[in-house]
Amino acid sequence: MWKRTGSSYSSLHSSRVAKSALAICSFSPAVLAKNINKLAISSAVFKRRYHEDIVYGYRVPKKFEYPDYSAEQLQNRQKQAALVCLVNAYRSIGHRATDLDPLGIQEKATIPELDLTRYGLTDESKTFNTDGILSVSNFEQPSSVTMGEIHKALKDIYCGHVAYEFEHIPDFAERRWFADFVESSSKNSRVDAAKKRRFFELLARSEAFDNFMQKKFGQVKRYGLEGAETTIVALDELFSLCNQAGITEAVLGMPHRGRLNILVDLLKYPPRALFHKLQGNTEFPDSLPASGDVISHIANSPKLNYGYKEDLHVTMLHNPSHLEAVNPVVSGYGRAKQMYLYDKNTDPNCALGDKLIGIQIHGDAAFTGQGVVMETLGLSNLPHFSSGGTIHIIVNNQIGYTTPATNARSTMYTSDIAKLVNAPVIHVNGDYAEEVARAMRIAFEYRRLFRKDIIVDLITFRRWGHNELDEPSFTQPLMYNIIRSRESVPKLYEHKMEQEGVVSKQDAEKTRTAFTKHLEAELAASKDYIPEADHLKGKWSGLIMPTEAVATMDTGVDKDVLRDVGEKSVLVDKAFKAHPRLVKHHIQPRLKKLQEGKAIDWATAEALAFGTLLKQGYNIRLCGQDVGRGTFSQRHAMFVCQETENVYIPLNNISSKQGKIEVANSNLSELAVLGFEYGVSIQSPDVLPVWEAQFGDFNNTAQVIIDTYISSGETKWLRQSGLVMLLPHGYDGAGPEHSSSRVERFLQLCNTPTNMSNKQLIQNPNMHVVFPTTPAQIFHLLRRQMMRNYRKPLVVAGPKTLLRLAAATSTLDDMVSGTSFKPIIQDTLALVPGAVKRVVFVAGKLYYDLAKAAEAEKDRISNEIAIVRVEEICPFPNKLLMEEIARFYNATDFVWCQEETMNAGVYSFVQPRLQSIIPSGTTLRYIGRAPLAAPVTGIGKVYKAEQARIIEQALADI
């Protein structure tokens, strides 16, 4: 029996068959022993690879046990080397000789490696002992099988309507398991009458739904499932297998093709709700501030049961039209859900992926063409990102919008990109529902055993154009001549069921008619349908949809608690060998500053925010490239033992009842990783997800996630997110690509009014964009994210040089109970407010340059210039600024000063807002760099001259 230690696993195979499947090469005893030693090394690497997951409490399934070879099997393989080569050929490239195309337009290749003459095996009457070579369980006498029987079995298994790619997998156990399972389960692929009836009904209802939609809503782009109806069979079989195996959570992401069909049938979305939306209405109650979305992006989250003990909760996530962007969101949501399930599950054998599965459905052109697919696959086996394996289904229409496969990819198969992570691939002809279901069973078993991604390439066709209003024969006349002349997939299966006596013509017609009548009744009911809110339930109950942003709130903490948390944030066991430079320059200075209560730097304030939130029971996920140490070697949230390389997270050892912080050093990706963190953020309000860009401008490669999820997810779908984006920002001579976080782009996405002259103006922006300049400010901002009774994304134009600037420090008194974040920091230079003639508004580190220069020239400047820091750009602090401006009642010169270029930074956002609140008759002046195509010059001398000019102009004589 096959086993996976740590949880139960059963299969269809006897131990004899299981062992025989692994004997694929002729190994001598010495070579065999050597390879078993390699296995031990592999297991050690596996353990180290997942060490960090184990540290954070995610129980990882142990390595699959390695069955032994028998001496008899090895001898048998040596004697029959030619047969071994033939079997290997079918396993390796048999997929190239299969019948996979339901349209028959793909050229069938002749594969010389599958020719019996190549191996001298032309005598089909000759008998062979297949033990240790082939695992076909329906051979009556495995010790005496004719070449004809063997050849037929190989063609049936590897060259039928299902094809397999698994020989590229590096792990020997995986390859041999796959061969064994495919070969020995061929006899057990029969489908009983009840299951066939289920498949027929799914296909019949699918076709009836699309026909109904075409009749009633013929001018709507519905992206029907016609031609790919067996997708619904694939999902149904997968849900059934999950339910049977005790999986309680499935997270599903998919694009628009067939979405409505799957929603209404499998995912229990009320047809009346869909028809209500199609008639031009909102999918949410009118009282809620939601703009809604198109029908191909809506979602549902039902509980399904296929007759087993626990329900399967399927969470379909909303998606934008940017193809494949939902993939990393699914992965992140699933990972966060794992943490929640582990918190609730005390079973010591419950491992990663036991209770949750990720499912991603893709289009063929998008799977090949979109880089986010590769980036998401790259996360699949990494510590902090794996959720126990994802099953991918490519709904392969063999065409993009109007682009044939020959123009859409450089690979043989659309699935070839999955070989990046050595994922096995199952190709299946979408005309054959039962073969599709079998492909899903194999995929499910592989994922359950190995906890890795697997691909099912479901080869289908598209009945209409890209949408039902499109004319595909403009560009694909021959393909669509074939499509229009052939019967539908549901009709083909219906005929098959009639021939087998599973359903009669009357039964078939009754099934279709009954479902159509049901849809007619739902359409009639849609006129009186009143949408219900589907947000702020479960873990989100207790939170609100805010009508205005909280201006100030007490986010301070008792001073003794701050000291205790701060000390524990750097304390390690004596046996742990920290780097001596860390001890001298990080640990000891932090302890001293905490005792003195002053000169608190940025990293310490951040640790205090994290630690106090953890102490309150919140969980934190800190993610990004090199976040453990910090890009600027400032954070050191994780220590690495200099002798063992064991990782220690001091913040996870503050108290016995604290939450957990996961310090996730990510791979070199922004798009997928930020999407992943957004998925984490929408799963639970009790997790603070923080993504830090290595440099602020690196967020631009994740712009799709920012545009379609972070900035608009709540508006479109009522899904709140408390995601924090830390984006190091500041001009310090680093050149064009390491200076700007492109903060202007975030501000352009914010939905606040431009006229701010009303002091009582209510603001409720979609995002908060801040420019904190002191450690206390970031302390309060991070705590505010969790202490508010709602969640909003927070974009932080964070520090670089301020991390260690002596002037940019805080005291513990700035963080004690009764203190809070300050949207503006008042001027402290002008001692006589009535003498001020010029008010300079500034954001970010430039303040310290201006303040230093002003202090040096205080005799010349006297009290005529005030410098006001705007720390929160959105929501714009109009009330506080109006009060600050009123202090300088004789001022006539108002300036926005920034180091960024005029077409970047925050000037374009603040200009109309400040102009509306400064005294009538005055004009806001701009001081900063001129417009430039790049964020800043890369010429050192020019940069220094520009910076000096900005400071000189801001402090020039009045």
The description of the largest β-sheet is: 8 strands, mixed
Annotation, overall tally of beta strands: 24
Output the number of helix runs. Answer: 32
Count of distinct structural domains: 4
CATH topology-level fold name of the largest domain: Rossmann fold
Strand content: 5-15%
Alpha carbon gyration radius: 32 Å
What topology, given as strand order, has the largest sheet?
3-9-10-8-7-4-6-5
Name of the CATH architecture of the largest domain: 3-Layer(aba) Sandwich
What is the average per-residue confidence, as pLDDT, rounded to a whole number?
90
Q: What ranges have pLDDT less than 50 throughout 5 or more consecutive residues?
A: 1-50
Structural class comes to alpha/beta
**What is the helical fraction, as a range of percent?**
25-40%
* Name given to the CATH homologous superfamily of the largest domain: Thiamin diphosphate (ThDP)-binding fold, Pyr/PP domains
How far from one another are the termini? 88 Å
Using the alpha-carbon principal axes, give the shape.
Answer: globular
Keywords: Oxidoreductase, Thiamine pyrophosphate
Cofactor: thiamine diphosphate
Organism: Coemansia spiralis
Protein name: Transketolase-like pyrimidine-binding domain-containing protein
